[in-house]
Amino acid sequence: MSGKNELEGKTVFFSHPPFIFRTHTERQCLSIIHELKAHEVINPADYGLRDDIRELIKRAHVVIGACVDKNFTFLVWNEMEFGEKHGKKLYTLMVKNKHNIGPLVEGIPKDVKKLSREESELFSMEILSDHRESIYSIFIGNWGRRF
Fold first, then answer.
1. Is the peptide bond before 17 cis (omega within 30 degrees of 0)?
2. In a domain, 55, yes or no
3. Mean pLDDT estimate for the chain
4. What residues make up the domain containing 87?
5. pLDDT tens-digit profile of 2-58?
């Protein structure tokens, strides 16, 4: 991110794939955003399926999308695209794993892939299957998990 903190005092919508919801990775990403003094961070993990996410995006000044392994999942890409159509400033938070998060970059890097719905499902299943040693680890965490 440039020298000027463009998030300070702004409402930020943090778009990220559901497999990151309620994980160490999500907490680390949110911590990075809060350190930049955003006024409010809207986290879709805090809302239910009946909530209108698009209205939450419209309320934000900025949309930050988590890019996992240089991939935007279908959900994240759609939320970023919706934000852009509504004049929101876009940022990308690069995520490799729970220990390697960042940098936060303005806009959308050219070398990231925008996954289709089918590709996103396969990608998510691959991520989750890497950590299937215990179904409980999905709910309570596991030190060996990538996210």
1. no
2. yes
3. 85
4. 11-140
5. 445 788 899 999 999 998 999 888 999 999 999 999 999 999 999 876 668 999 999
